[in-house]
Amino acid sequence: MRIEKCYFCSGPVYPGHGTMFVRNDCKTFRFCKSKCLKNFKKKRNPRKTRWTKAFRKASGKELTVDNCLEFEKRRNVAVKYQRELWSKTVEAMRKVEGIKRKRQAQFIFNRLKKGKQLEKEEAISEVKKNIHLIKAPHAGKAKVLEEKMVQKLQEDVEMGDD
Amino acid sequence: MALYNFKKIMVVPTSKEFIDITLSKTQRKTPTVVHKHYQIHRIRHFYMRKVKFTQQNYHDRLSQILTDFPKLDDIHPFYADLMNVLYDKDHYKLALGQINIAKNLIDNVSKDYVRLMKYGDSLYRCKQLKRAALGRMCTIMKRQKQSLEYLEQVRQHLSRLPTIDPNTRTLLLCGYPNVGKSSFINKVTRADVEVQPYAFTTKSLFVGHMDYKYLRWQVVDTPGILDHPLEERNTIEMQAITALAHLRSAVLYVMDVSEQCGQTLEQQLELFNNIRPLFANKPLLIVANKCDVKKISELTEEDQKIFADLTAEGISVIETSTLTEEGVMTVKTEACDKLLAHRVDGKMKGKKVHDVLNRLHLAVPAKRDEKARPPFIPEGARIGRKTMEVDAPKRKTERDLEVEMGDDYILDLQKYWDLMNQDEKYDVIPEIWEGHNIADYIDPDIMKEELKVKDEEMQEIRQLAKQIREKRKLKIVCSKDKDVHGPRLPRTVKKVERKTLEKEMGDLGLDMTGKDDSHYAVNARRSRSVGVAKKRKREASVVPTSRTRSQSASRPPRDQSGVRDPKMAKQAKKLMKNQQKDMNRQGKKGEADRHVFDLKPKHLFSGKRKSGTNDHR
């Protein structure tokens, strides 16, 4: 038993679910639900249909090249069962899954960083241009100005004295 | 070759059937309607057609029978002889000859009557002629009843003959009845010949096939032969003799050492010597069967001498027991080897070989030093070879186990698994984990990375920007709410209240306390004091001189701006009034009042257009 991949949306097809279409050149296509099958029959390209994983990978919205993705790969060589090998593999799978998730999240985070940068710049420009809506340009400076005048007067007085 | 045609011979119908079929066909396939008043050539043609059609049918079917049945001269002499033994050559030929004659007779009849029909002058005459023709043909067929029956029986038997290929490798079993020939063939091949304690259980030839050295071998089982001269032999024995005579095979003469078949060893030896001439040019082997009951060593001196003599002549004697399967394989291997050698010899002596031999060349590597380099045969191949030569004992199959254990049997496929660690055989193997196939993973490398830290300075700027955006939105909403009709006046028209100014600036963060001496406060006070005493009159002659009010007051009103003296003012006023005369007369509100109270007055648009214009009638 294996969990197959849906040809259209790249989602998992569990045993007992979905349909399979076999073409005359013996190529099989599995689908997880009728939505995918109907889209396929309408000859839509999954790489152009925005909600599919194929689109997301093709347009660079998700992590595509990474060595942690190389671990999950269909190998057409049968391996004889060995208990320790299997248990080690399950352990390793756990770890790899955790790392893969983190890396995928990091990838998306990095992708959205540029947006944050732009937001930052916008905020700065906003502040520079329209600060007057909140704060008057001389707010808090009156006191300073007064003190300066006082100081100046004092100096004058002193000068006069001299 | 005529081998397979025996099954494809068409069914030979009985004479009655034959006649029925043909006549009904004639009735169906030819036109049926004819009248007296038709033209005579048409009537003649109609009946001639029927006669010819019937003749054609008979002719076709009889020809087919003649071609389907094999000609004894054309087939392999083995089959020819076999057919002779079974069906009698003369009778067969006679029957076919009769059929041929019948065919010719029918043709003649048809020819004659067609000729006669040309002179038929009425429908009745032609009809009678046709009746006569058909009647005669059918009578001819009726006379063939015996032949047809015989041929049908021959056909049925012929199609059931075993398909023996006379040219391929064959082992032939012969001997007295009940010696164990059928048991032998059952052991060696997959054939299932009947084995019974009475003599002449096998009444005809049987074929079995086996494999040896990657080749297919035929094993032919014959009915037992008794010891009397050729002329006295019956059909069953003759079949065996035919096979012996014609098939190029290895002969296995089976003898019964224990004499359970009912013949003594001497009698068996007699028979052997009698049919010796048939064994010329064939590799011969003597099978001493039923050795589980009595071995050769247990025999008397004389009997043992017999066997010794035979061995001395160069014929190998092998003891077997079809019951215990002892020696059966040795017989098989020896016989096969002998036959192969014989056949190869035969081919070598022939002419065709030279064509092939001239093209063959066996290259042997030249020795370069004294080191011996024997061929390396791996152990597995050696074992394999051995099992080829001597059949390994049959493994106990699951079916045997099932039969043994009955209800307790459980199909356990995992017990044959060949794993590194045998005690893991019965483990439950996991296949799927959290939506992933375990089979897709192998030992991975584990690596980790650190996450980045957030930036804190930006937070303040972001907050301020947020506030700005909110204030802006608020302002937009307020200005939309104002809902101003009419022309928008500039800010300078309105007077700014001191209170609102101070409040706004205070909100923006400036300190507005103690601003009594400020410029705007002083001006406000001064303008107010003047404004209270004087009442502003609406007189054009008085040009306002004071400019103590705010900007809007300092500008002269429109009816006084640009007017130099009272005379000009009077004139301007006059112009104004003149312009307004028309409007006032028509009762309009002002310049912009273009309202038409009655867009389509009835008196203008109804009735005949006698006198008047569009504007009045």
Model description:
The complex is a heterodimer of chains A (162) and B (617). Chain A is mostly helical. Chain A has two domains: 62 residues, Ribosomal protein L24 (Ribosomal Protein L24e, Chain: T), CATH 2.30.170.20; 56 residues. Helices cover 51% and strands 7% of the residues of chain A. A two-stranded antiparallel ribbon of chain A has the order 1-2. The model of chain A has no long low-confidence stretch (mean pLDDT 91). With 617 residues, chain B is of the alpha/beta class. Chain B is built from 20 helices and eight strands. Chain B has a six-stranded mixed sheet, sandwiched between helices. A two-stranded antiparallel ribbon of chain B has the order 7-8. In chain B, strand 4, helix 9 and strand 5 form a beta-alpha-beta unit. In chain B, helix 2 packs antiparallel against helix 4 and helix 3 packs antiparallel against helix 8. Chain B is elongated, with a radius of gyration of 65 Å.
* Oligomer description: heterodimer
Estimate the mean pLDDT confidence of chain A. Answer: 91
The string of secondary-structure elements of chain B, in order, is HHHHHHEHEEHEHEHEHHHHEEHHHHHH
Please outline the major beta sheet of chain A. Answer: 2 strands, antiparallel
